[in-house]
Amino acid sequence: MKSKHEILFDKPQYTRLIIGVLLVAIGFVFMSGGGSDDPKVFHEDVFNFQRIGLAPAVILIGFGVVIYSIFKK
Q1: What number is the average pLDDT over the span 2-31?
Q2: pLDDT averaged over the chain?
Q3: CA–CA distance, 7 with 72 (Å, rounded to integer)
Q4: How far apart are the C-alpha atoms of 52 and 71, rounded to whole Å?
Q5: What angle do CA 47, 42, 37 make, to 5 degrees?
Q6: Which of 66, 59, 62 is nearest to 32 (CA)?
Q7: How far apart are the first and last CA of the chain?
Q8: In which band, very low, low, confident or very high, does the pLDDT at 62 lie, cut at 50, 70 and 90?
Q9: CA–CA separation, 68 vs 34, rounded Å?
Q10: CB 63 within 8 A of CB 20
Q11: Rounded to whole angstroms, how far apart are CA atoms 59 and 65?
């Protein structure tokens, strides 16, 4: 008996998957930083739009692209 190897994804699916993973990584980079070296000093940078608005949206879009690339056949 011959074993037939079938590739799970094709090239466009791998491309979408990589784009989704990169979007998730970019979202986590947007979320990082803004802290203070001194724990007694508070910085308002923690609550700016990039960290509480943009970063979660980019991460969710990235997860959506990853899920779409997995289920698209």
Answers
A1: 90
A2: 88
A3: 14
A4: 29
A5: 105
A6: 59
A7: 28
A8: very high
A9: 32
A10: yes
A11: 10
Contact residues for 31 (Cβ-Cβ < 8 A; gap 6+): 51, 55, 56, 59
This prediction has a pTM of 0.81
Q: What angle do CA 55, 58, 62 make, to 5 degrees?
A: 140
42 contacts: CB under 8 Å, gap ≥ 6: 36
Residue owning tokens 């056949």 = 73
Tokens of 29: 């980079």
The residue behind tokens 């699916």 is 13
| Identity of residue 63 | F
Cα dist from 25 to 17, 22, 44, whole Å: 12, 5, 24
Q: Which of 63, 5, 52 is nearest to 30 (CA)?
A: 52
- Cite the DSSP H helix spans in the chain: 11-31, 49, 55-71
Residues composing the chain:
73
